[in-house]
Amino acid sequence: MxxxxxxxxxxxxxxxVLSECTDEFLYxxxxxxxxxxxxxxxxxxxxxxxxxxxDADREILQYxxxxxxxxxxxxxxxxxxxxTDKHNLEYRWLDKQGNPIWISCRGSVxxxxxxxxxxxxxxxSELGRRNKIDSITGLYRESSLRDDIIGMDQTKEIKxxxxxxxxxxxxxxxxxYGKDAGDEIxxxxxxxxxESAKGIGKVYRMDGDEIMVLCESYDTMEGDPAKxxxxxxxxxxxxxxxxxxxxxxxxxxxxxxxxxxKSAGDIEMIEKAGFSLREAKRQGKNACVRYSQERYDEYxxxxxxxxxxxxxxxNNFDGFEMYxxxxxxxxxxxxLGAEALIRWNNEKFGRVSPGAFIxxxxxxxxxxxxxxxxxxxxxxxxxxxxxxxxxxxxNINLSxxxxxxxxxxxxxxxxxxxxxxKVENVLFEVTxxxxxxxxxxxxxxxxxxxxxxxxLAIDDFGTGYSNLRYIKEMMFDLVKIDxxxxxxxxESRYDYMVVKQFTELAHSLNLKVCYEGVETNDDFExxxxxxxxxxxxxxxxxxxxxxxxxxxxxxxxCVL
Length: 560
Description:
Elements: H1 8-19, E1 25-30, E2 35-38, H2 42-45, E3 52-53, H3 56-59, H4 69-80, E4 86-94, E5 100-111, E6 117-126, E7 140-141, H5 142-150, E8 159-167, H6 170-177, H7 179-197, E9 202-205, E10 210-215, H8 225-243, E11 252-260, H9 268-282, E12 288-290, H10 293-314, E13 320-329, E14 334-346, E15 350-352, H11 354-364, H12 367-386, E16 393-397, H13 400-405, H14 408-419, E17 426-431, H15 434-438, H16 440-451, E18 455-461, H17 468-474, E19 478-481, H18 483-486, H19 493-508, E20 512-516, H20 521-528, E21 534-536, H21 546-552
Parallel strand pairs: 7-9, 11-12, 14-16, 16-17, 17-18, 18-19, 19-20, 20-21
Antiparallel strand pairs: 1-2, 1-6, 2-3, 4-5, 5-6, 8-10, 8-11, 9-10, 13-14, 13-21, 14-15
């Protein structure tokens, strides 16, 4: 028989010597005498009054976190009955203040001469000191989740799910009430998750405000067990908020991904659960979203496209091109201006719709360098056309991100100074929105425009937060009526009267008016009698490259 010993005192003496050489706690468990002994330093950290524990199989449990007592008792019983000769367990002991501390307890059995188990000899280390356990929630960290996913038994039939819970707006709570309040919310939320997931799955602390549940099996394919678990967790959170008298109100969002034998063990599931949680937050929060492969593929495509946009910008704006759509001056019956519109042709994605790539530029902040390029390129082109038509004007669109996140006024000033460009030959378009109306910074930016006598237009008017105060206070020069009003103006009496009355009112306020989306001869004949200042639409021309604009539209007279 291996590992045969018979002298407890001899082993104890060896442990005392070894304990001077390690930060870990060493122990002996005399199985026959039911005596547990741990190195002296344990009294400084844990709840022990004495390093000798008699009636150990019963008394040792008083030092263990209540939820983990059965786990330890079962493990020790397996050793006593000879079911195993190893002890390897992660669970919680209580510290001097009665708080739980995660520990790793390992040991091996030493045998008597007669072959019976006599001693369990081993070491205990604090997992928290090795960053495996989160200090706020007491949960295993993400590294343990990854180990558990990789270690899934794919030889068995398996069906399970990951559910990722996120505390909504935790950053705002930390800023308003302090980090301690945020930590308390995280701690209580983790308790709610643990209670709801008891007997269902294991719980882990992820980065930031996120907590993950791993369920490796569920009884039925009917319904959505991850959503049911989320609903139970949310009920517990709501009860906590109610009991606290709504001193701090918060909500939680959830994202889930399901797996089976084929997909078990795939570490990418963590990212998919994270994607689903972000979807839930994008859709308004306080809800749970189940993973969709179609949406995830689209998400990856957007990331890929965003990277291609970044490469194009770094490669001297390779693939970007400016198109120009003619704008007809009704009074002079001539095309004396154009709207500059960006296009992008990429080797990997081909020609990409502006509706697809411009939001990506805005989300990433790349619209700022691209916006500077647009301003410079459009002004340079307009300057060339002014050699033919001195009064030619170009319209340039500005993004809210440009206005809010960059010094767009400085960019414009620099460009106009370099080109000796006149203010009357450019007009800047901004799309109306609640952000523009409510943001004081925006109003200051627009005042800077007016101080420089730069012309401003409000684009897509009628689709957002349209009101006359909005127009008057922001001091716009021109209003572009959205094409949705023009599209049915021949058939819709309502659209016709809205456009007619607003045009008359705008003119009374000394504002110019442009109709967008005039596409047919019927549209044109209908709106001409409403006396707009400018008309723009496919009836005259689609946006075209520079060469085509010069050949077909520059300064062209129009029969009205």
